[in-house]
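Pinned message: reference record for Tubuliform spidroin
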Amino acid sequence: MKLAAALVSCALCVTAATGGAWLSRPADVDYGPVLAASADRYAVLDDEGEPARWYVTGAANGTAVSGTNTASDSAVTRIPADSDTAPASPWKITVAYSLDGPNVDAATVSGASGLVGIYIDVQPATDEADKSIPVVAFTVPTQVAGDISADKGVSLATQGSDTVVAAAGKSGSGLSFSCYMNAKDFTMSAVALASLPVSNGESGNGTSASGSDAAQLAATAATLVDSLTDAGSGEHQQLVDQLKALRDNERKLDQSVVAERKAAHKQTFEGYMAAYVGSYTNHLSGSIGTSTQLPALMGTAGELSGDTPLAQAVIDLANAVNNVSAAHMHAGAVDALDEVIRRIQQQGTTGLIDDLTAEAAEEATKGSKQYSEGQSQLSAAMIPYSMKYTDVYTANLSALTGGTSSGASAYAQQAIAETNGSADLKDAQSKVDAAMGTLAAACEHTGKSQALKQIVLRFSDQFEGGDSADAAQNGSGDNASGNTGSTTAPDSAKTSKDGGSGNTGAGQAEAIDESRALAGLVDPQSRSFYGRTKVADAKRKAQAALKQAEAAKQQQSRDANASLVDDTMSMSAGDVMSYANGLTSALGGGKSSGNSGASASGDASAAGQSGQSQSNASGSTGTDDGASTASGKSGQSGDAADDTDSAPVLFGFDKGGTLLTHDMSTLISETVELGDAGTLIAQAITQLGASAPQSSTGDPRYLLVIPTV
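Predicted structure (tokens):
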């Protein structure tokens, strides 16, 4: 073993020394020709105010690289910020904050309430600043601050639910301004800084607004994400329509099922309280008084378990609680569908399977944890509620009977009716309602998890990677390559859809698979161990997903509007006695409240997971829910589980090693942010009017996104 380790170390050293592909840094690329032909330059800054990379597109003098004037047709090149030939912004921007007077950092002002100040300072950084004008814009939600004051020359306008703050500086001298607001839970958008060229110090040359440098900068920003994904191609409209139909159905179910189960829960809750005080009434003796009679309550506590009407009422109430909570899973499904539709419309389906699978696991964990917390919260709330209810009931019953227990049962229903409407229960009821809200929110997370899993399973063949893997598996080339958008992507990315089969079709499918897997990798990476393992991993995952999705797709074909969630839960009697045991303990009998609470909470959580696991088994067998990982996997074949969750054996590293993967989510997020910033700058230019440049020079223009709170 030591000898093998030494040989590997020597091999790595030799590789580094000889400029091998593994460890050597690729030679710096001369981006001069690319920059000379570019007109639009974009970057998202990090926490230190520096870009990690630049996106450059378009061409000087209004001539696109592809030979057209259409911004969306222009090539996009990503340039590392540390490259010797990377561009530099003409302007340096600083954003500062204050809270009730003193300056603070972004973390302190985020979510704060009080007098918030925002200070923007833009200063020249290169000689290009002498021939360009900085335009700054950001938004503040009107619900955060409806009244904002700003320095002279700063434009404030309401756009939808946001206030747009915009200002334009002067060439060579920059821009500085401040604005203040009385904020509640402060937040704001990122700051967009556009550097727009001017000719001979003039702010315009008669060009129409739609053909100005600002308009071209914004238009190209809107299509940047298409350079990384297949968004905007129209390829996914059928998928989006299907998802919208499912969303509409889930929204209807959310309204109808929640309303129905809320009514059932209210009736069951009142039935439980009636059974509770009915038992209590049977144990009353002598003079009743105007507060709870503890001997009678002790007798009632003895009926909370066993084969009694009160014990059955406890179980009925627990099931009603679970059912009304689980109804909110449909709201989680609506949220999931909204998110996926928005993601596909903005970013296409690139990387969607991995992202949704990871998010589903996170949502399942949140739901499981929060549901357990909600059960404990409800248990804690029901004890004081029951005690207060008994106090009020006893006083009402005493008034009806003249203070004696003799014949009290005849007045029980009248006393219950008066107690149900009593204002004295308001505080205790609010704690029960808060616990029910926690359970509902937990089920929204669980519903979102189930929906995301079902979306992946039902529509995996329409996501990037799923269809190409199917083609490779069947030796068919019936896939469109989409738009990889990278200037360094292999030529095979442009293979067209021809429906061929046999060796030629298989070769085309293989090329498409590879080009999609390598989209976004630069040449030295795409031909390396790193790039090739990415291709292998993409194929493996896609093929495993196809196997797991077969049952879900069959269900989808049978009922296109079938719900994405299973909104049922059930518990055994032993799992729902938490607050009953707690009440017994509070009165001095039975288990200690600490042990019973912990035990019941744990049992209830397990039962909840059991119910959810059963639900998931019927809908998404290939995924896990929170703590039920082991049970989730037991429902699927060993091959499918191993194929999905473990890396293939690569060069003898076996399963102990880690597979190198390429995550495009950062690049996609950046381009989406830049697209949003482009839209914001377009609004700002219109808002600022003549004070902002309206020229069309063809000179380099810049758009920077500065993260804020």
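Pinned by admin. Summary line: The mean pLDDT is 74.
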